[in-house]
Amino acid sequence: MPSTARAVALLLTGSVLAGCDLPAAVGDHSRIMVAVDDATWHEVGASIVEALEPSRFTVREERIFDVAHVDPATSEDWADFRKLRQVLVIGEAADPWVATALKKVGDRVPRGPEILVARNVWARPQTVTILLLPPGSQAAEAAAVMPEVGALYLRQLEEYSLARMFVSGEQTELADSLARIAGFSLRVPAVYRVTEPEVGVFVFRNDQPDPSDLIRQVTVTRRPWDEVESTPRAVIGWRAELAARTTTPPQVTADSALVTRIGIEVGGNPALEVQTTWSNPPGSWPAGGPVITRLVRCGEYAYLTDGWLYAPGRPKYQYMIQLEALLDSFRCA
Q1: Lowest CB count within 10 Å: 13, 18, 38, 198, which one?
Q2: What are phi and psi of 152, to 5 degrees?
Q3: Contact, 249 vs 280, CB < 8 A?
Q4: What residues does 70 pair with on adjacent strands?
């Protein structure tokens, strides 16, 4: 069970003023501090954690969020923990930690239960989600609303990840040129480099700020549809063959699908998706990561759209959102 002690690892030391007399927020968007009294946490803490810590397969099952708890009424650490970038306050309007957050929402105080969002309450930039409970409520009422709170956190993280991906702008002219010469288009952030290592193979790569720390890459190629077998194993085989030629060192693709999605559509065209993993070959620097590969039919052609990630020691879900968004933007010309 998450605890105040566990939360210490989530904090960075120091605090820098960021204007308006608010300190700089610490932590990142995947770390959530839950402010609620100990009695409520003891009763429904398991339900809160279940709602806020969904997992996603990357190279293993990975928690999307890390959750910790503090009782703001009794803990001496609340003054520090409330500076996290993501804070969830749970309680009635009369509870001091809820009342302070509500001042940032507006003059009207709803009765509850209601989910509200306030910005920059105790730090900047900060998002404080308020689970407002009606007076005299029971802990079970908080547990009943938690699935909705969890869904809100997922939407917020997806919106943040996508906005961050395109903060450099978009290569708007690229989509038109790809449509003319390659028969497809793709929304590509300006920070991505575009190369064609082989005729008909297009690579979109972002390895900034340091390729030893983070790489996101999408590769697109095609074959006549009648030369392709539309099965997960055939898609993995095509991906393995392509990666062995176009990556350095040549990636080794796991020979089985860990996740398969059949019957999906990409831009209105039928598609098949497999998720697996890649690794460097034996004898080279040990590295690996997740892979999302899709087979999309565009008329007489089958397009392979392949996204892979290298992010050692980092939470990977945010980058998987970005890869999926790039693959989702694929359109047949």
Answers
A1: 13
A2: -65, -45
A3: yes
A4: 35
